[in-house]
Design brief:
The protein is 33% helix and 31% strand. The protein is built from 4 helices and 10 strands. The chain has helices spanning 40-53, 70-88, 139-151, 165-184; strands spanning 9-15, 19-26, 33-36, 56-63, 97-104, 107-115, 120-124, 131-132, 135-136, 153-161. Helix 1 packs parallel to helix 4 and helix 2 (70-88) packs parallel to helix 3 (139-151).
C-alpha cells in the first residue's frame, strides 16, 4: 500500500466468533488516544503506547470476556500490528531500527526492534504475580507476540531488573512506544529509499 497524500494512516477491523476489534491510527500524530477494550489494565497500557509513540490511536474491542481475557488481548495486538503495517505502506524512508531503555522507579527495561518484515519476538520478562487488576500477567507476552507478528517487526523486550509488576509491564509498553517512534520516523536523507542494501525488506 502506497501512502496516500503522504499520510500514514490506517483503519483495520477484525471479526471472529470470539472478538470484534476496530483500530484506527495515524503514525504521524500527536499521541492522542481513545481506547476501550473492556479490559481496564490493557486500556491503560495501550494509552501509554499511543502517548509515548505519538501515534494517534483509536481502539474498540468487544470479546468473550466472560470466558477470559486471552482472545481480546491477542486479537487487539493483531489488529494494532496490522494497522501499523498497513500505515507504513512501502516502508520507504523509515529509520527502521529503534531502541529504548526505560527506567520506572526500581525497574529498568530495554526494548529494541527492527521494522524488517521478519517478525520475531524475544521476551525476557518475568512476573511474580499472576494478575494485575483482573488481567493475567501471562497475557502480556501474548499481546507482544501478536503485535510483532502482525506488524512484521523483530522485537526484543528485556526487563533487566525490577520488583513492581505494574512498573515492569508498563516499562515494556513505554519502551515499545519509544523504540517504535524512532524506527518509523522518516529519515530526511533517505526519504525515498528502502532502508536495506537488498532494496527490499522481508524474507
Amino acid at each position: 500500500m502506497e501512502r496516500e497524500n503522504g499520510n500514514r494512516i490506517a483503519t483495520v477491523e477484525r471479526k471472529t466468533k470470539e472478538t470484534e476489534v476496530f483500530v484506527s491510527l495515524d503514525l504521524d500524530g500527536t499521541g492522542e488516544y481513545d481506547v476501550d477494550t473492556g479490559i481496564g489494565f490493557l486500556d491503560h497500557m495501550l494509552e501509554q503506547l499511543s502517548r509515548h509513540s505519538l501515534i494517534d490511536l483509536k481502539v474498540r474491542a468487544e470479546g468473550d470476556l466472560h470466558i477470559d481475557f486471552h482472545h481480546t488481548t491477542e486479537d487487539t495486538g493483531i489488529v494494532i500490528g496490522e494497522a501499523v503495517l498497513q500505515a507504513l505502506g512501502d516502508l520507504k524512508g523509515i529509520t527502521r531500527y529503534g531502541n529504548a531503555v526505560i527506567p520506572m522507579d526500581e525497574t529498568c527495561t530495554r526494548v529494541t526492534l527492527d521494522v524488517s518484515q521478519r517478525p520475531y519476538l524475544i521476551w525476557k520478562v518475568n512476573f511474580t504475580r499472576p494478575k494485575l487488576g483482573d488481567m493475567d500477567t501471562e497475557l502480556f507476552k501474548e499481546w507482544f507476540q501478536a503485535f510483532a507478528q502482525a506488524a512484521g517487526i523483530t522485537l526484543h523486550v528485556e526487563n533487566m531488573y525490577g520488583e513492581n509488576n505494574h512498573h515492569i509491564v508498563e516499562s515494556c509498553f513505554k519502551g515499545l512506544a519509544r523504540a517504535l517512534r524512532q524506527a518509523i520516523e522518516i529519515d530526511p536523507r533517505k526519504a525515498d529509499a528502502i532502508p536495506s542494501t537488498k532494496g527490499v525488506l522481508g524474507s
